């Protein structure tokens, strides 16, 4: 009978709870709990990208903000690094739009270059590639570039990147090529362009010269290094005895360059020694000249002790002659300051055709530059030894040279040497240094001025300044010529008989006019006579046009000129407000843009320069297909095998969360956490939207009428808003995310929402208390949504769609609202200090409540009452000002200044003594003594299944 009654009572209570739940003001909203981002985000894409870009250019009141896009290469699929770059740019642009700027963002593409040319030719099936004309090669390369560009364009747009996607700049466009030639022409007239036969980075696999920025260095490259003895013929050394069999000892990691040897260099200030191996028992002992400081190292390497006979300064060796290791001609020892005693023997084999420092050392002495290696990296007939001819220098050529040295008894030691070595960044194969006639830009004449002008550029991070300066200062010249067809030609002609170049003001002007009509194809469409300026057609000389094209870094490096024309920006300190690219661009686009702009305009092309790192996996490893750790942007957005479809905003939040100045990590665990953050943002917005569903702007309560906790939240949201603006202004987007997370998880979800739910749900719809909360929620939601919008525009648009009708003025997009205003009244430091005390007390009470919950004394905090004992009148006054039971979310909270009452020390009572504002406060938590109200669930009802007094009053109001 007892069980049946209990069961019946439970049923009745459930019915009662359901009946009263309909009288509660529970949140109602059409804003869904689940994002379904892959489908829902597309609903907002146009309005926050294409439509917004046009609107802000026509309607925003402030001056133009130019973020100049560094052009990605129109070849291959987009990777996660592209996402990092483009999304960072978009966050900046959206923030500027919200602040009323007309944002100019014209996406660009770098469309020329050998990789595109080779890829296009590889994709041609059943065609004899050797039979193709330059124009045919250019046609297939152009088609390949445009196809890749269109694929990339669509994917960039899908990431919510706002820009002028219908009118990008492309380095293959006729108008762009004309601008490029005009920049080249200006640099030429100022004397910055010249031709020289000197060593350049040469890629045998690509058959073209490379710039420093087109190199990748591998630390595990293995070379065959050799120690070689070279017989001395005549020496100026002042020795007390005559030494037979005197040799200089050299060391090189490039034996294939020995046929091109023109000298051996010493440092005149280094001490050298003549040494003899003490195990040399021959009648005529071998004597070797080495740097004295290399003695110990060479004894270990050669496996024998070396007896020192004489020492002297390197100056005495200069002018000494020796026998060439291959062709047996006589060569000299010369002075070269780059020689050190840190490695090798202290005497350096000099091949000016294969070394930049070698070239400079020989140039001063008029020693000819000799390079018996062709464009394929193969020894030519000039090598002077028939067994070498036709062999690849990096493989068989090296082995053949070593065998030759052995036969001549010149090889002292051979070993494998592991070291850092440059590779072609496209083919991933080793390069060589090879002297060929190339065109150069004189960086030496520009760089000091460029460094001076950089002083006025803001750098993010600050360390980027030193890096860019050092890369710029380390260059003296820039090889701008390339040996390929797919590119902008260097507009030079050569006299057929003398090979003397023709590059004059009028000859280049004429070519520019042709380009205005035909584009760069005109260089190959028209014959040499049509391309020549009139004054050179009948001057008694025959000219042929050159076949070199410009370095792609020159192509993209002059993009500032195109943007300058597009924006009609005349009075400028810098051409663009911002450049933002990866750290590799300190050697690339940042530098090529700087050098060309300073050379032509004496201006830096950017007022702010932001650098980001590379993307690694969760373990910090570089992504590669072989490791299987590659994560593509599309996989994050659309999902994959056993992987969720996170959507665009999660990808964007990952970018914003990163400390992008360093290398950035991505992986399953990281993306899962980022996805969880977006879910929390969504839930937070949903709570506010649900409670504001019937609220109107006209119902906002004046600040002075708000409750203390509501004013405190406005204080917090005021400083949140101030900080967010500061973080955006400093491009510290990860701090924006941290502030959003803290507001979401700590201040709102775990505190304010928790405290005010009872007022929102159980108070009367017209009550002042409830309207106070809704007023604060409105302000929070507005600031929260706008703060989030540059990072997660689709989510922000969806949130805004669900509350724009309650604003005083409705706009089509959250980005048309402008940045939020913050009322100075909201900042209230005394109130903030007061609430820090109350929050501390709340945390202490919560610990006791959790202990009671753990002991199953209570299930919910509403089942408990709290009593506080304080002796300080100041603290008492503070606590009495507030409705503590709502702060603690308990059914009752009393304050007493009396001596603590007796309490039974059992599991129904929980006690703690704390220091609160430097005063003692004792806390007692007990189980509530009254009954649970079936409507609000507070234990304040006088009888079971009856309403509490507050709920009776609410329901009595019509």
TrEMBL record:
Top-level taxon: Eukaryota
InterPro entries associated with the record: aa-tRNA-synth_I_CS (IPR001412), aa-tRNA-synth_Ia (IPR002300), Anticodon_Ile_BEm (IPR033708), Ile-tRNA-ligase (IPR002301), Ile-tRNA-ligase_type1 (IPR023585), Ile-tRNA_ligase (IPR050081), M/V/L/I-tRNA-synth_anticd-bd (IPR013155), Rossmann-like_a/b/a_fold (IPR014729)
Key words, A-Z: Aminoacyl-tRNA synthetase, ATP-binding, Ligase, Nucleotide-binding, Protein biosynthesis
GO terms (BP aspect): isoleucyl-tRNA aminoacylation; mitochondrial translation
Record-listed E.C. numbers: 6.1.1.5
Molecular function terms, GO-annotated: aminoacyl-tRNA deacylase activity; ATP binding; isoleucine-tRNA ligase activity; tRNA binding
Residues annotated as domain Methionyl/Valyl/Leucyl/Isoleucyl-tRNA synthetase anticodon-binding: 710-867
GO cellular component: mitochondrion
Ranges where the Aminoacyl-tRNA synthetase class Ia domain occurs: 49-666
A matching Pfam family: tRNA-synt_1
Subcellular location field: Cytoplasm
Entry's family note: Belongs to the class-I aminoacyl-tRNA synthetase family.
Alphabetical list of NCBIfam families matching this protein: ileS
PANTHER family reported for this sequence: ISOLEUCINE--TRNA LIGASE, MITOCHONDRIAL (PTHR42765:SF1), SOLEUCYL-TRNA SYNTHETASE (PTHR42765)
Protein name (database record): isoleucine--tRNA ligase
Species: Rhizophagus clarus
